Amino acid sequence: MAFPMQVQTRFRKRVPCQLTASGQSYAGIVINVSRGGLFVQTTAGARPGQRVRVALSVGPGPTPIVLGARVIWKRVVAPHLRAVSQPGVGLQIHTAPDAYYDFVAGSPGIRTGGAAPTAGDGERAAGSARGAPNGSARFRVRVKQAGGTRTRALTLFAATPSEARRHALAQVGEGWDVLEVEAL
Question: What distance in Å separates the CA atoms of residue 73 and residue 88, rounded to the nearest whole number?
Answer without folding.
Answer: 9
